[in-house]
Amino acid sequence: MNRPSEDADPFSLAPLPVGADPNAKRWPLCWWAIFPALLFIGVEVMFGVPKGEHSTDYNGAFIVGTCGIGLVFSLVLSWIAYQVTGRSRLAATIVFSLALGIVGVGTIGNRAVEHSEPANPKAGTQLAAPAPRQ
User: Fold this and answer.
1) I want to staple 81 with a disulfide (CB 3.0 to 4.6 A). Which of 17, 95, 99, 104 is the partner?
2) 86 and 80 Cβ atoms separated by less than 8 Å
3) pLDDT confidence of residue 36
4) Which residues contact 35 (CB under 8 A, 6 or more apart)?
5) Contact (Cβ atoms closer than 8 angstroms) between residue 44 and residue 70
6) Which of 27, 43, 45 is nearest to 35 (CA)?
7) Most trustworthy range by pLDDT among 6-15, 53-62, 89-98
8) Pair 78, 99: CB distance under 8 Å
9) For 84-131, how does the pLDDT look when each residue is reduced to its tens digit (9 = 90+)?
10) Rounded to 5 degrees, what angle do the CA atoms 43, 45, 50 make?
11) What stretch of H or E contains 40?
């Protein structure tokens, strides 16, 4: 005789695969979210180091801190998107990538402003008078 086993779910249409946990929680990001994260870490390492007199003392801590804050910020936004969109992993991964991109562009922008010339000349410097017209 064909008797069902005692641990089988009588309400399921198909048997569960071996090792599958029906209550297991899924990670809200797709596997390829590692690529924007690695790109962001690279941008922070290249452009996020502050310039200054004592900057070499704290470079490692600064990079780890900025990478950590950027990743946590992006993960929070992606989790919100995951909840709002009905647990769409694709939408959460896109929001994660865009948030990392915005933070990375901000880092590059800060480096560009740091290297630009000041808008106002320093006090004590004299500007040359314009040449007279002939």
Assistant:
1) 95
2) no
3) 96
4) none
5) yes
6) 43
7) 89-98
8) yes
9) 999 899 999 999 999 999 999 998 888 777 766 565 555 555 666 677
10) 105
11) helix 34-47
3-state secondary structure string across 81-126: HHHHCCCCHHHHHHHHHHHHHHHHHHHHHHHHHHHCCCCCCCCCCC
Instruction: Name the amino acid, one letter, at 22.
Output: P
47 vs 80 pLDDT, higher one: 80
Q: Residues 27-40: pLDDT tens digits? A: 889 999 999 999 99
* Residue found by looking up tokens 């695969």 in the block: 17
Maximum pairwise Cα distance, the chain: 115
Listed residue (32, 37, 42) closest to 73, CA to CA? 37
The pLDDT value given to residue 40: 96
